[in-house]
Amino acid sequence: MHIAVMMFSTDQTVAPAPLARMLADRGFEGMFLPDHSHIPASRRTPYPRGGDLPPEYYRTHDMFVGLAAATTAAPGLTIGTGVAVVPQHDPFYLAKAVASLDQLSGGRMVFGIGFGWNSDEITDHGVPFTQRREVTREKMLAVRSLWTEELASFAGEHVQFGPTYMWPKPLQQPGPPVVVGGAAGPKLFRHIAEYADGWAPIGPRTIRDGLPDLQRAFEAAGRDPKTIVLHAFDPRTEPSVVEYYASLGVERLVINIQPLGPDHLERRLDEMAGLNALVA
């Protein structure tokens, strides 16, 4: 199992390039960045973890710009999105940004995606919150077409375009691994089985209890359940938790850490570096 790190990199914390170098120097396999375009002042949507929305949500760097800086600063590092809120992105720019990053990183891009939880933010992008899953589905099917077909086209309810060219194609074919974040459920698993490669939830028990249903969804879609890619996002760093993830067959554990300045971040990463030996 690989261990990667995700942090909200903002204009008040360590920037993506030095963050990538810090991670590579300590033996971490990858770096993931989150995705928030803006935060509407209305704040009608409660923060899922309760309390006030943390200040870093308002100040995060653009995810794709940050990952480009990271892969330039630490070329051997896996880079990933944790997670891209697909309904908020234009499918052409989304396909091109991810394909470009996959090329620039030497095929080390992981495309984590989600449907989004902040209705204020999603609505500002012209997407009704109740339709975000179907919008995501069509955009991802369109992205797949742009990645794999020389002359791509798509005709859906939310996405339509005629024959078109788009390069570069991803270095990884038929595209970088697509893992979908979210809690277990039949609707989520149908989405994963249709257009993604795997699942990236929070919590090992979620994986343990939900994986059989995801495997059945793959079988129903005519796909081999053995090909399911498992990632996990978790802020916990206890060795027993890390080892449990590994025992479940998780390919990559992405540890979420608090946004920190240089001195505090170095100490935090030094404390975590020993986890890599648990899964080596």
UniProtKB/TrEMBL annotation:
<dbReference type="InterPro" id="IPR036661">
    <property type="entry name" value="Luciferase-like_sf"/>
</dbReference>
<dbReference type="InterPro" id="IPR051260">
    <property type="entry name" value="Diverse_substr_monoxygenases"/>
</dbReference>
<dbReference type="GO" id="GO:0016705">
    <property type="term" value="F:oxidoreductase activity, acting on paired donors, with incorporation or reduction of molecular oxygen"/>
</dbReference>
<dbReference type="Pfam" id="PF00296">
    <property type="entry name" value="Bac_luciferase"/>
</dbReference>
<dbReference type="InterPro" id="IPR019921">
    <property type="entry name" value="Lucif-like_OxRdtase_Rv2161c"/>
</dbReference>
<protein>
    <submittedName>
        <fullName>Probable F420-dependent oxidoreductase, Rv2161c family</fullName>
    </submittedName>
</protein>
<dbReference type="InterPro" id="IPR011251">
    <property type="entry name" value="Luciferase-like_dom"/>
</dbReference>
<feature type="domain" description="Luciferase-like">
    <location>
        <begin position="19"/>
        <end position="227"/>
    </location>
</feature>
